[in-house]
Design goal:
The complex is a heterodimer of chains A (503) and B (551). Chain A is α/β, with parallel strands linked by helices. Helices cover 54% and strands 15% of the residues of chain A. A 7-stranded mixed beta sheet of chain A has the order 7-6-5-8-9-11-10, sandwiched between helices. In chain A, strands 1-2-3-4 form a 4-stranded antiparallel beta sheet, with no helix packed on it. The two termini of chain B are 44 Å apart. Chain B contains 15 helices and 21 strands. In chain B, helix 1 packs parallel to helix 12 (449-458), helix 3 (86-97) packs across helix 15 (532-550) and helix 7 packs across helix 9. Classes of the chains: A alpha/beta (503), B alpha/beta (551). Chain A binds chain B through residues 236-237, 313, 346-349, 352, 370-373, 375-376, 378-380, 383, 485-489, 492, and chain B through 165-166, 168-173, 294-295, 299, 406, 429-432, 434.
Chain lengths: 503, 551
């Protein structure tokens, strides 16, 4: 036997140990990313992992013949399972309810396989070393590998490669060990050709995963978001990103914050209750935009409301908020309520052909930052909305910040007035947005009566807070503007100018 | 007239024709050779589409005097309108509006519309020719009435018309690619030196002043329709010099200003400032002073299918009167004063005769030249110059990112052969569309119209790609891969060009004059500028003449 070979096998121990620890770290990190509470996650993952390694060690005694060839096969398997683990976990996270079962399944499988490696290696090496030498060498390399892994993982791998690519890289290293061992011991192994080609194919698969990792889950984005991205998806209309930090979820559409779970109630309560509480007869409610179902959640608190029609352009968005567990918890299953009808359509085209009247209409579109969305803030659009507003009904429009963008805010007000509506502008403070504005509008013959009391359980809106909301201090006072029209789109220009000073 | 001069005229005409034929030969031969060369090389672009134009077959029956079967029947109609472009439809509308129902409109194409025709694919409707109008001058009551009739004007506020919000061009309207970036608006500004800007400002101030100036007869110097412009000789004489000479005389030499004026003349007249008369050149800038309750002065009205939308509104009310695929190939004056029109149906290949009391010829004068060959009218038809055009409707997946202002309705690049492209999705209300159709307009004005026209007819689809795609690629680097389809449309006689000494010439006056109070004329080429408003008024004028004679 060649003298080099034992050395080679010891290097394998080193690589195998590094890989093993890396998989464990990946699983722990992923779990704390996706599920939060990193202490619990890391602790349970490490526990399950070590326990599984124990199972692996125990099983190892049942391997009797062809140990070298088993070792190679297990290496290949560890490489594949470990390499693809983070991708699979990411992909199933939003679609599978019992994500934890999949997660711990992966952790156990990897643990068992890694647990098999060292005992098998020791048995391969047992005839080549004295027992005391063997134990000392194998465990030395094992622990050196563990130290290396635990140092490079947070310092180099996560910042530069990200979770998914790291997993693929170590998967490839694992399989590379299998291939090298296979080539070096080809005389001692039966079916070495088969094992060689199996490891080649596995390396190619892992390499492909490594190359396309960005497409599967875009970790490049994690650079731009301070929080951890737990979901990202490009729909035909927008890029949806969900981030999580501690218990706070944030939703970004095309990079713009839509809500932050810790203070969204301030926004959605302000958007819905001052209007809907004043309409005790309201039966039919329309929500345009707001595919997150959070405004609908507030609306469904009113027993008098029979039906809520939600019109949102993006099916990707409404489906996400109809299926993802975390998000369903946030919107209280609002979009699954039998009272709610979800329509995925372009708001302008949709409203043009509507005749049915609504008692309360919530317009919760993205900010008018481009000409396409700007169309939904024009007099032409509000005229159509007016056409389907019940005579005694009210509508409310999210109207950007009257503090940062007073011209934009008052342009929306002016545009609503230009189609013959009476407006009731108000505002409140939403920590993640800043000072935010809303405008209610109704037929000039109607008198808006401030609600004297509100539903129990509201956290922000009350009789007293509405008085404050209706008052505009000097720094947000009304400014004269033009009407926003399809053929001038001044709102987009104002919005751009005013927010450019801030962002 | 002496025999000597006759001979000399004849000879020079002969020589002119020889050199003309020679140039045609060289150009078409060149195109043919280029096409052979192209066939040897492998195809350069992987772009699919069609190459079409107005029905040439029907037109050639008229020109080449092909033998047709004898008429199978004869019928009588009070008023026969020939041509269903805007002037023909407008004439029909006026007759109907005034209680006259015994009329028929013949159209040789299988559809109405003339230059306002349009196309549709699965992405969008798009124009094939005329694609916008400006808001009406407030003294143009006939047009304002019509626009109200079709709900383009919805109501009046403080006596100003309120235009339908969906038809006023959505913002952003116009951008110009100049000095490496897209600027807002088409008047050169970005990276333009101060002295040039000064000249541009001076010119715009001058035309702005002309816009509000009246002649010695109390009429505006420049107005729409042209016939309502002042006849003040001190301005009419500008028709006798080219726009180019006028500008030279006034000391305008900024290349940016001259580019802008060349662009304007190409856009509205299909020719450059050296061909266009100074009067017509100024008319472009000084005739529109429309005010609206809800839009800027001279605001633009447009539709995805361009003026095809207005055309459909006109044709809708006349559908029982319109006969398409029907060619009139001869007119004869009868003893009792009525006129016999020989009609050929290109669909059924049947011919018939229609005996009409009155005829309104809404066909262009190059067609009337053939139709009226039996009438001695003494008109020089060669003075009618029709600019040929290429229209390319381009379906694209996505425009590559570019610097400056985003996609607008009208997108023009400085110093390119075309006059840019319009976005047919501009008036769409949808928030996001994955595909777009852009309509690219190329006036073929580098040679005299007759030569450019013949050259255009010989070019193959691939050769048009070779002309159009490199320009688009220059404007939008990387666009070639995003092009899914291009449909070309060639207008041999795209629009009348108001060349020097044409609009106010005796010749044009003669061409407008009715024959024996029996045959009347309506077409924008009789105004001298090819815009919707002119065709619209031409049609009404002719219909009024017909109604006056009858009553």
């Amino acid at each position: 036997m060649n003298k080099k070979l034992p050395a080679l096998l010891l290097i394998s121990v080193f690589v195998v140990a590094t890989c093993g620890l890396i998989y464990e770290l990946i699983a722990g990190t992923l779990a704390s990313y996706l599920l939060g509470d990193s202490v619990t996650q890391f602790s349970t993952i490490i526990g399950v992992y070590l326990f599984s390694m124990g199972i692996g060690s125990w099983i190892s005694k049942y391997f009797e013949k062809n140990i070298l060839s088993w070792f190679i096969q297990i290496e290949i398997l560890v490489g594949l399972v470990g390499g693809f683990s983070s991708t699979v976990l990411f992909l199933v996270f939003e679609s599978i309810a019992s994500f934890r079962i999949v997660l711990y399944g992966f952790v156990s499988l990897t643990g068992i396989l890694v647990g098999l490696e060292i005992p098998l290696l020791m048995r391969i090496l047992k005839d080549r070393y004295e027992f005391k030498d063997l134990v000392s060498k194998v465990f030395t390399f094992d622990y050196i590998g563990a130290l290396l892994a635990s140092l490079i993982f947070p310092l180099l791998l996560i910042p530069h490669l990200g979770l998914v690519k790291t997993a693929y890289m170590f998967g490839m290293l694992n399989v590379a060990v299998a291939l090298i061992v296979c080539l070096s011991f080809k005389k001692e192994i039966r079916a070495s050709k088969y094992l060689q080609s199996a490891s080649m194919v596995s390396i190619i698969l892992l390499l492909a995963g490594f190359v396309y990792a960005d497409k599967i889950t875009s970790f490049s984005e994690s650079q731009t978001y301070s929080d951890t991205i737990i979901y990202s998806k490009s729909t035909p209309y927008q890029r949806i990103i969900l981030t999580k930090k501690n218990k706070v979820l944030r939703l970004f559409l095309n990079g713009n914050l839509q809500f932050s779970s810790d203070d969204e109630y301030r926004y959605h309560e302000a958007l819905v209750h001052p209007g809907l509480q004043a309409l005790p007869f309201a039966k039919h409610v329309l929500v345009m935009g707001g595919g997150d179902g959070l405004a609908v959640r507030e609306i469904l608190k009113y027993p008098n409301v029979d039906s809520v029609t939600l019109v949102d352009l993006d099916k990707g968005m409404t489906s996400l908020f109809q299926s993802n567990k975390i998000l369903l918890a946030l919107n209280k299953n609002a979009l699954l309520s039998p009272k709610v009808k979800v329509i995925n359509a372009d708001a302008f085209s949709w409203i043009k052909v509507q005749h049915k009247k609504f008692d309360f209409i919530v317009i919760d579109f993205p900010d008018p930052s481009n000409y396409a969305v700007g169309k939904l803030y024009t007099n032409a659009f509000y005229n159509l909305v007016k056409g389907i507003l019940a005579p005694k009904g009210l509508m409310v429009v999210q109207s950007t910040s009257p503090y940062v963008a007073p011209k934009s805010f008052w342009t929306v007000n002016k545009t609503l007035e230009s189609v013959g509506l009476k407006t009731i502008p108000y505002h409140n403070y939403v920590p993640s947005f800043g000072e935010w504005g809303y405008i209610m509008a109704t037929d000039p013959d109607n008198i808006y009566k401030k609600p004297q009391q509100y539903l129990p359980g509201l956290r922000f809106v009350s009789k007293e807070s509405l008085d404050l909301m209706l008052f505009f201090p000097k720094d947000m006072a009304k400014v004269e503007t033009d009407v926003n029209k399809l053929n001038n789109q001044i709102l987009v220009k104002y919005f751009e100018d005013e927010w450019a000073n801030v962002l | 007239m002496s025999g000597q001069t006759f001979y000399k005229d004849d000879l020079s005409a002969y020589l002119k024709r020889r050199s003309f034929l020679l140039r045609i030969g060289l150009i078409t031969g060149g195109i043919f050779l280029n096409s052979c060369y192209k066939k040897i090389r492998s195809t350069k672009y992987n772009i699919k589409g069609t190459l079409q134009g107005p029905n040439a077959k029907a037109g050639h029956i008229l020109r080449d005097k092909i033998k047709l079967p004898a008429p199978s029947n004869t019928r009588k109609i009070k008023t026969l309108i020939i041509g269903s472009g805007i002037s023909g439809l407008s004439a029909g509308r006026w007759l109907k509006k005034n209680g006259e129902t015994d009329f028929e409109i013949l159209e040789l194409e299988n559809h109405t519309g003339g230059n306002s025709y349009f196309g549709t694919n699965k992405v969008s409707a798009y124009p094939l020719g005329a694609h916008y109008i400006t808001i009406a001058n407030n003294d143009d009551n006939l047009l304002i009435d019509f626009l109200q009739e079709i709900n383009v004007i919805t109501h009046f506020e403080k006596e100003l018309p309120y235009y339908n919000d969906y038809f006023l061009t959505f913002d952003p309207e116009e951008r110009l690619l100049i000095n490496g970036g897209w600027q807002e608006g088409l008047v050169p500004d970005f990276g333009v030196p101060a002295t040039d800007k000064e000249q541009i400002k001076r010119f715009l101030q001058e035309v702005d002043q002309l816009k509000n100036t009246k002649g010695n007869d109390g009429k505006f110097l420049f107005n729409i329709p042209l016939s309502s412009s002042s006849s003040d000789p001190s301005y009419r004489k500008l028709d006798k010099i080219s726009f180019h000479s006028y500008l030279e005389e006034k000391g305008y030499d900024s290349k940016y200003l001259l580019w802008y004026l060349n662009y304007a003349c190409k856009d509205d007249y299909g020719q450059k400032i050296d061909k266009i008369s100074a009067w017509a050149g100024l008319h472009y800038f000084a005739s529109r002073r429309g005010k609206a309750a809800n839009a800027e002065q001279n605001a633009i009205l447009t539709w995805p299918e361009g003026n095809g939308w207005i055309m459909k509104e006109l044709a809708k009310q006349l559908k029982d009167h319109i006969k398409t695929s029907t060619l009139c190939y001869g007119l004869k004056l009868m003893a009792n004063g009525d006129i016999t029109a020989s009609i050929f149906n290109t669909h059924t290949n049947a011919t018939e005769e229609i005996i009409a009391e009155k005829i309104i010829l809404c066909s262009p004068q190059f067609v009337n030249n053939r139709l009226l060959k039996n009438f001695n009218r003494n008109i020089d038809y060669r003075a009618f110059n029709y600019s040929p055009w290429l229209i390319a409707n381009i379906t694209i997946n996505e425009l590559p990112e570019s610097k400056g202002i985003n996609l607008c309705w009208d997108n023009v690049a400085y110093n390119t052969p075309s006059v840019g492209y319009v976005n047919s999705a501009q008036q769409h209300l949808k928030l996001s569309e994955d595909k777009k159709v852009i309509t690219y307009y190329l006036p073929l004005c580098d040679f005299e119209p007759a030569i450019a026209r013949l050259a255009a007819y010989v070019r193959s689809y691939e050769q048009w790609l070779d002309i159009v795609v490199p320009e688009l690629e220059m404007i939008h680097p990387g666009i070639t891969d995003a092009i899914e389809n291009i449909d070309f449309w060639v207008w041999g006689h795209g629009m009348i060009a108001p060349t020097t000494n044409f609009v106010w010439s005796e010749n044009l006056k003669k061409a407008k004059a009715p024959i024996n109070n029996k045959i009347f004329f309506a077409h924008s080429d009789l105004s001298g500028v090819s815009i919707f408003e002119e065709a619209f008024h031409q049609g009404i004028n002719a219909a009024k003449q017909v109604l006056n004679v009858v009553s």
